[in-house]
Amino acid sequence: MKKWNILLSLTLITGAALRIAVFFQNRSLFLDEANLARNIAQRDLSALLQPLDYGQFAPPLFLLATKWNTLLLGNTEYALRLLPLLAGLASLFLFYRITTGLIPSFPARWLAVWIFSFHTTLLRYATECKQYGIDVFAAVLVLWLALRQGERPFQWKQAIIWTFLGMVICWLSMPVVFILSGVGIYWIYVFWKKNDRASLGRVAVSIAGWLLSFGLFFFFFLRSDAEGDYLQNYHQPYFLPLLPASAAEWKQWGGLLFQLLKGFSGSTAAAQVVGGLGLLGAWIGWGRARKGMVLLWSLPVLSCLIASGFHYYSLLPRLTLFLTPLLILTAAYGWHVWWEKSGKWPRVAILAGLVLMGSRHTGFRFFTRPYLVEDLKGALAFLEANQHANEGLYVWKWAVPGVDFYTRLYAHPYSLKFGETVNSDQHFAEELARICDHTPPNGRVWLLYNHLMSKETRQEMKEELDQFRQRGLVEEAFQAKNVAVWSWRPQNKADNASANTSAEGG
């Protein structure tokens, strides 16, 4: 058994080392991350408690802590991502502690730690300046503390600690309220079954404190954003229809639930079957012996789905990331149940299924190649080295947040020349005509595109480039991960340059 524990510890250490390695790879800020960084850089501490610009929202304690990091370390990626990194490392350790106490069977326990260590999305948000990695940390912390408390009598000391914890942590992570709902109702059920009225009363005090704190948080910070038309329209496809009344709503309902399964198990049908069987096994195991555990592990998911049904919480994958450790642990306990019920050959099949599922989580590959969402800094470095004083710059709408941060707010800003700068947030045809008129003779305009990870955005870029080609010569100048830089000479300038070249040749 000792050698298996060594293997488990090595997996934990490797997962921690991976997060640190990706952090120091220092990848470019990506869209919403850049927009949040703009808010943090442009505002003082008190202004961060006001509604944010650029369609952003983040919990107040996360914003304030990150602002302090930038004041101490400068407006760099390292300062912006330090808190998510620390939260990611703490989450990994706490998850390991929960797993070793909850799941007796080594194969199921090891797979749970493996998935959490090398889950690509968990890795991303442990090294990105967004609150989703903090949500994971808050969820794991509350679950770990709740399991440590277990079913022991709830004394006033515990009541005070839990009241304070719950009242503070919802200002660091909004969705942790769903985890707290499971914890609170789990304890009500446990102490009601034991007829422990004193513990019930103290739990009620803690729950009242949580509700008061979250109510204030919702009223002062969340309500305007949650009920605003922009977010309601943007997240419409990610709200769960509570009572599906059409084929389209049933499809949306099934797709969103399936997305939760896919999020922790993997992208293949086989991995999802293994994940689903794990969840089923947990329900069977806990349902027979420890019904309270069904409440603890199921109610956070159920309360999140209900909130989504009332259009107060989106099931966008990154917003449900906080449920990932809970679902991994639930499935791992289910795999333990199946393992204990099986003989030699069924265990071989179970082991094969677990290995198959584990093979879908390969974040360790980023030890040998950089984890990149897009290489915007590479494109900006190219432009800095190649753009001349009389040359314009067209910044595509998705690149505006990153370009603004890296040229104006960054600790080591890129020096670009914004002579005749346009961006496609404006009326494209008007801007195209204007830049043709204002580009100097023999002039050139650089076209910067990013966010090219989908067919839709690549097609949109292609359509714009076709319009540029109708007005001049377009040549590809630089290409990297999900970014591209093109050189464009408006038609009259391109013709002049061609004529000049011909005259020199004659």
The chain-level mean pLDDT equals 91
Q: Report how far apart the termini are.
A: 85 Å
Unreliable runs: 496-506
Radius of gyration: 26 Å
Form type: globular
Taken together, the total number of domains comes to 2
Given helix and strand content, the structural type is mainly alpha
Physical arrangement of strands within the biggest beta sheet:
2-1-3-5-4
Record field, number of beta strands: 5
Comma- or semicolon-separated keywords:
single chain, 506 residues, mainly alpha
Helix and strand layout, with pairings?
Blueprint lengths: L1 H24 L6 H11 L17 H14 L3 H26 L3 H13 L1 H6 L6 H18 L6 H14 L6 H18 L3 H30 L2 H6 L12 H19 L3 H21 L1 H19 L14 H18 L2 H15 L17 H11 L5 E4 L4 H10 L12 E2 L4 H11 L6 E5 L5 H16 L1 E9 L2 E8 H15 L1
Parallel strand pairs: 1-2, 1-3
Antiparallel strand pairs: 3-5, 4-5
Helix pairs in contact: 1-4, 1-5, 2-18, 3-4, 4-5, 4-7, 5-15, 5-16, 7-9, 8-10, 9-10, 9-14, 12-13, 12-15, 13-14, 13-15, 13-16
